[in-house]
Amino acid sequence: MEIQAGEKIAEGKTKEILSVKNPEVLPAGQRGYVLLQAKDRITANNAQRVNEMEGKGALATNTTAAIFELLNACGVKTHFVQRHTDTCMVAVKCAMVPIEFVTRRVATGSFLKRNVGVKEGLRFSPPLLEYFFKDDEAGDPQWSYQQIVTAEMDCGGTVIRSHHLDEMSRMTVTIFEILERAWQSLGCSLIDMKIEFGVNPVNGEILLADVIDNDSWRLWPSGDRRLMKDKQVYRDLREITVEAMQEIRKNYAWVAEKANALMSKPWGRVVIFMGSASDKDHCEKIAKVLRELNIPVTMHVCSAHKSTPFSLQVLHDIEGEAVPTVIIAVAGRSNGLGPVLAGNTTIPVINCPPMSAQWGTEDIWSSLRMPSGLGCTTAIQPDTAALNAASILSVNDHMLWARLRARQLNTYVGLIHDNQKINM
């Protein structure tokens, strides 16, 4: 059934928020949905400069949807539900937190005006985080951490406390790092970015909200400011001309097209060697974590002691496929499997022996004490072996890196929530 737009709830400079007449057609579990309808309008300097730009609503919606789809796929919690039309998307209805969270990798723009003496191009590692209170009349003044906490803002029945701000701050930097890596994969540098958060009034959950489009960041292809593709080009115009607006539209179309290419397919794989079929349960624990990270997994039963030629042939077949691979060797007792594989390939090998209560303390030494010249490592826990393999593959896979980073973020947020529950 087609989603039907209802009444206008709110209107901003570049979008309208509409209710959904028939929310029953959308996924269950949420009480409220809204439609974000983008306008064909571009603004700058708190709407002191405003122009219509044909097709901007569709380009902005395409960019935002592509970015939120990527973040959702990585495990970041957002309000985005699905695309609706070329200029409209469906989102969870949130009570917005009236703060813009700005992350900077490079010193430029307004930062230089507020920090006289800092040279343009200074890199921040880790990225610098700033807060700005949303107030058009006051020019969106910069606020400190302490000002936000002291303000005790009520957002949908949730009063923003220090732990909420800690959560949003960590999310902000993680989201920037994820998108920075994604754009790097296409040869572009994400210089800075602003985002906003909302609170789901149904459960109090904090979600990345609003939009992330070409108005939200500075984006420099090849790291070259002269090649910028973002709204700064519009801000810098001395005079608005038809030709200038056409060029800006081309920039927005370029970004929208590239945004759809950010979410790549898995780059590598993990191959699990087990010394015996009796090790399969242990291997499945490893595979479960890898599949959660969207990493392709294959398994082979090969004994380095009992079927050495076969084990090496399987290894050579894997090498011949020229697919980036990490091997996890699962063998207990006298583990010859990991060392034999590591001694015959340059593919990274991780030992993950199934430990028995009876002989575990003795058997582990065959995985820890390697002959000289071998570089295989050992992880005792299945999830540790899986995450180790994933970290190796993530060096050249920005989507996998993003999933690992989001996993760390969600662990951090979970600990904050647990601490609050204990201290309530």
Describe the structure.
- The protein is α+β, with helices and mostly antiparallel strands and 424 residues long.
- The protein is built from 13 helices and 21 strands.
- The protein has helices at 56-74, 110-114, 145-151, 162-184, 232-235, 242-259, 280-292, 308-320, 337-342, 360-363, 365-368, 382-394, 398-422; strands spanning 5-11, 15-20, 33-38, 41-44, 49-52, 80-85, 88-92, 95-96, 99-106, 123-133, 142-143, 154-155, 158-159, 188-199, 206-209, 217-221, 269-274, 297-301, 325-330, 349-351, 377-378.
- The strands form 5 sheets. Strands 8, 9, 10, 11, 14, 15 and 16 form a 7-stranded antiparallel β-sheet that branches.
- Helix 9 (337-342) links the parallel strand 19 and strand 20 (349-351).
- The longest helix has 25 residues, at 398-422.
- The protein is elongated and about 75 Å long.
- The protein starts with a strand and ends with a helix.
- The mean pLDDT is 94.
